[in-house]
Design brief:
- The chain is α/β, with parallel strands linked by helices and 230 residues long.
- The protein has six helices and nine strands.
- It has helices spanning 16-23, 66-79, 89-97, 179-188, 202-209, 213-229; strands at residues 2-7, 27-32, 48-51, 83-87, 102-117, 131-142, 149-153, 161-164, 168-171.
- It has a nine-stranded mixed sheet with strand order 2-1-3-4-9-8-7-5-6, with helices on both faces.
- The radius of gyration is 16 Å and the shape is globular.
């Protein structure tokens, strides 16, 4: 398949998603919005769209005017029944583009915390395991877009994952980050690590990144496989 992905900052890439896709023979192209690159003119250019994370808010049009074009592509890709996967900011962009709302969560959630499955997700092909510890770095959250099926929650944030049908998936958290990726974001966004109930220290985040990734990687493998097979 032809897979196109959106990158918002240089320190948040595809992570382990990239090696998973390349190992299966898919081709990758990218729009690097931070470098001034333009979004695809038409969704006919790809089979699968992946939207990654970033520290900006999805309504910062004045600072990031490309957000409008990005949301247009997301809407058109979903309408054309393309595969669409959003991670963190990417999930928020999908939610907004497809009719949900994005707003400040009650608390920031940064570090390794569990997400748990919710009963509403039982009938979805993306039904979550009972509990998986994953990596978080977000202060905003979203309401479910029309047709969205709620999949997972955490103690700090109710809406952690949603799906629309079998080809659109939004994940508020990160399954793709390797230990190196975690180290990079922790350095680049160190100013956000202010003490709070659901914000871990840099030392704890980095220490846990070498031990917590296995379950997250297994969940990522299953979710990508489901998207690929549809």
């Amino acid at each position: 398949m032809k897979i196109h992905w959106f990158q918002h900052v240089p320190f948040e890439g595809l992570g382990s998603i990239e090696s998973w896709l390349l190992a299966r023979g898919h081709t990758l192209t990218c729009t690097r919005f931070y470098a001034g690159e333009a979004a695809p003119a038409t969704v006919d250019e790809f089979d699968w769209l992946i939207i990654m994370g970033g520290p900006m808010n999805i309504y910062q049009y004045r600072d990031h005017p490309w957000l409008r074009a990005e949301k247009r592509v997301i809407r058109e890709a979903a309408a054309a029944n393309k595969r669409v996967l959003g991670v963190c900011l990417g999930a928020q962009l999908i939610a907004d583009a497809l009719g949900g709302k994005v707003y400040q969560n009650t608390e920031k959630e940064i570090g390794w915390f569990p997400v748990t499955a919710v009963p509403e997700g039982t009938g979805s092909p993306f039904m979550f395991p009972d509990e998986t510890t994953v990596f978080h770095w977000h202060g905003d959250t979203f309401s479910l877009p029309p047709g969205g099926v709620w999949l997972a929650r955490s103690e700090a944030c109710e809406h952690q994952a949603f799906a629309i049908g079998s080809r659109v998936l939004g994940l508020q958290f990160h399954l793709e980050m390797t230990a190196g990726d975690v180290e990079r974001i922790t350095a680049e966004c160190a100013d956000e690590l202010t003490p709070a109930p659901h914000v871990q220290s840099a030392a704890e985040i980095l220490a846990r990144s070498s031990t917590e990734g296995e379950a997250a990687a297994a969940l990522l493998d299953r979710l990508l496989g489901l998207l690929e097979s549809e």
